[in-house]
Design brief:
Number of domains: 3
Structural class: alpha+beta
Distance between the termini: 59 Å
Number of strands: 12
Strand content: 5-15%
Oligomer: single chain
Order of helices and strands: HHEEHEEEHHHHEHEEHEEHHEE
Shape: rod-shaped
Strand order of the largest sheet: 2-1-5-4-3
CATH topology of the largest domain: Beta-Lactamase
Largest sheet: 5 strands, antiparallel
CATH class of the largest domain: Alpha Beta
């Protein structure tokens, strides 16, 4: 888009800055030259005026010499250039004139009407007149004469006046030469400053060029690109660079988080589809056998119906777990209290002691594996202690059951399990520890992800979970304002530790 009448807008920022800088320098040089020329002309003209005043006063007191005798005053003026002295009567008629040179510039001054009244009107002040021919200027002074009369007139003739004039050609030449020198020097200086300014502007705008290159790289998809730090942090460019880099870091983080969220969503749907398909395929297979008449006896029918019921229960539990996680997610991201939106998931909070859940967990381990050694201790060992908390006992029981089931399912038979309960600092603690194979750092980072299992195989052994138990446990504890910590090392077992704030303590 063009802007008629605004040509500067069609130029680049670099060109506009350079143009404005050069224009300002040019205006400054022209103004300086004009001031210097005016001041020089005034100074030289003042010197001429001083000489004219002195000469005029002397000439006004002298008697007019003979025409063929040049007075000493005129000879003195001749040292300073072209000059002339004229004696006028009171009517303004030139009676006698003397010149310092034979060829006066422009044929001499073009004298105005200078009768005695006009001379007195000038008040003895120098003034400028033109020449008889050409573009020349003369500076002259007219003074009345008193006490001495012209010898050639009658006895009663008035004294008249005297006019002393000198050419201003020397002043004009000096001023013109100074002006020409100033213009030449100013032009050379302006050219040098323009060249220097071009490189200075290029250097000064280099950060903007780097910002443009960075924006181009980001537009192409390279979100890791950053603006190089080409200026000190306290400068405008330095602060702009820091702000842009911080903004780019946030954008990069946001894009990475979105990509990770999309990846997790894709994995969730893939795993959920697989988990839902497995029981559905089993149910469909058993019903197909029944329709085809492959179940010959009543015993076969009963066994098939039992398997269908088991797969249906498995499917129901899976759907219930997914619905619970969805409600927990929705509740975690709901608006703050005071809005019109109601929580999709609520907890029945009441005072309780985690020792009750620890004792039940002890019996749960024995029920799941009667031959497995299990002990009840305090956090990290020692004697168990009280662990008061304000919580939903039913939901915490679900958390503990998931942790116990995880320890029994993913450790070899006979592996000892320890249930710890008590308080640590401002938290009530319940922990489930085993002496199984433990987890690697990578597995530890993902152990609370949905549908994640350390065994990447898609096959499921009898009683194997869906990979939602630890995710549900983590979400429920978080909903209580607590957290789950995991201590594990390969070959050192796993310790899942539930920490809830004590009553009266912030979460």
């Amino acid at each position: 888009m063009t802007f008629p009448g605004r040509p500067l807008r069609r130029l680049s920022l670099r060109a506009r800055l350079l143009f404005l800088a050069v224009a300002l320098v040019a205006v400054g040089l022209l103004a300086t030259g004009a001031v210097v020329s005016t001041a020089l002309r005034g100074y030289l003209q003042d010197r001429v005026d001083d000489r004219l005043v002195l000469t005029g006063r002397i000439a006004a007191r002298l008697s007019p010499p003979a025409a063929d005798d040049t007075p000493p005053v005129i000879r003195a003026l001749g040292l300073f250039g072209d000059a002339t002295v004229a004696y006028l009567d009171d009517g303004g008629t030139v009676r006698t004139a003397f010149e310092a040179s034979t060829e006066l510039p422009g044929g001499g001054p073009d004298l105005p009407e200078l009768d005695r009244a006009a001379v007195q009107a000038h008040g003895g002040r120098p003034f400028t007149v033109g020449a008889r021919h050409g573009e020349h200027h003369w500076r002259l002074i007219a003074l009345p004469r008193s006490g001495v009369r012209f010898p050639l007139g009658a006895a009663d003739e008035a004294p008249g006046s005297v006019v002393v004039a000198t050419s201003l050609d020397e002043v004009d030449r000096t001023v013109d030469k100074t002006r020409n020198i100033s213009l030449t020097a100013g032009t050379v200086l302006l050219a040098a400053l323009t060249a220097a300014g071009w490189f200075a502007v290029r250097s000064g705008l280099r950060p903007l060029t780097r910002i443009e290159e960075t924006a181009t790289a980001i537009t192409a998809g390279d979100f890791s690109h950053r603006v190089p730090e080409l200026a000190a942090p306290h400068t405008e460019v330095g602060r702009l660079t820091a702000c842009l880099n911080e903004m780019l870091t946030q954008i990069d983080t946001a894009f990475a988080a979105r990509a990770e969220a999309e990846s997790r969503t894709r994995r969730f749907f893939a795993d959920a589809s697989h988990e839902l398909r497995t029981p559905l395929v089993g149910i469909k297979g058993y019903t197909d056998l029944y329709r085809m008449g492959a179940l010959a006896t009543r015993e076969d029918v009963d066994q098939t119906m039992t398997r269908i019921a088991e797969e249906s229960e498995r499917l129901t539990r899976l759907v219930a777990d997914m619905l619970l996680l969805a409600r927990l997610d929705e509740d975690a991201h709901r608006p703050p209290a005071g809005t019109d939106r109601h929580a999709s998931f609520s907890l029945d909070i009441a005072p309780m002691d985690l020792r009750t859940l620890a004792a039940d967990a002890l019996h749960d381990v024995r029920a799941l594996d009667a031959d497995r050694p299990v002990t009840l201790t305090g956090p990290g060992g020692g004697r168990p202690g009280t662990a008061p908390a304000s919580a939903d006992e039913a939901r915490l029981r679900q958390v503990v059951l998931n942790l116990v089931g995880n320890a029994v399912t993913h450790t070899p038979p006979g592996t000892p399990v320890r249930i710890g309960v008590g308080t640590v600092g401002d938290h009530a603690v319940l922990e489930v520890a085993d002496q199984g194979p433990g987890l690697t750092d990578g597995e530890r980072e993902r152990v609370f992800d949905r549908f994640y299992r350390a065994d990447a195989s898609r096959t499921r052994s009898t009683g194997a979970g869906s990979g939602l138990g630890l995710a549900i446990a983590h979400a429920l504890v978080t909903a209580h304002g607590g957290r789950i910590d995991l201590d594990t090392e390969p070959g050192q077992g796993c310790t899942f530790r539930v920490l809830l704030p004590l009553p009266g303590q912030p979460g």
